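ENTRY TYPE: paired fold submission
RECORD: A
CONTENT: sequence, then structure tokens
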Amino acid sequence: MQKKMYVTGMDDEATAEKVTAAVKAVAGVANVVSSTAKCQVCVDFDESTAGIEDAITAAISSTGVIALG
């Protein structure tokens, strides 16, 4: 499944790289693309993994940005 999540606070490439690394570390995530220009994170993940969407949101929040959904 692919999901786009809009974020606030991802203003530079260093922050985008932190977000990408944090989300890639979540079990079940296949691919992550973070875009500062669009203020969004696109995530490909295995939707059968229990609690994965909450884990992705928590990973994004752990980097100091806010996931809007």
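RECORD: B
CONTENT: sequence, then structure tokens
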Amino acid sequence: MALAYAIALGTVSLITLKDLPDVQISFADKIFHFLAYSIFVVLWYFAFCYTFKFQKTKSILYAFVFAVLFGIIIEVLQDTMTASRALDVYDALANTLGALMSAIILWLTKSLRVKNS
């Protein structure tokens, strides 16, 4: 699931999106980046933790670092490989903040256990 999401996110980030409706929300693009990379971290956390059997703390760290690097690489590729997209430092910042938010929430909840009744 995490790999499919990464491929889909990378594809959507690098193709030319035409005729999208104008969403009358300020900073809608940055909100999308924030949420997309928040989800990215959660999916990769589960992949690292439950598929690759890494410890929870290591899984959170790897998912966060992977998300930040992935976001930076996508931004550079937008600038170098596409004619319709450009590198945007604020997009990279929104990506990083979304990834950080998920990583912090995962870290805070990693020791919580559900009590069986």
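NOTES ON RECORD B: The chain has a mean pLDDT of 91. Residues 30 and 90 are 8 Å apart (CA to CA).
STATUS: closed
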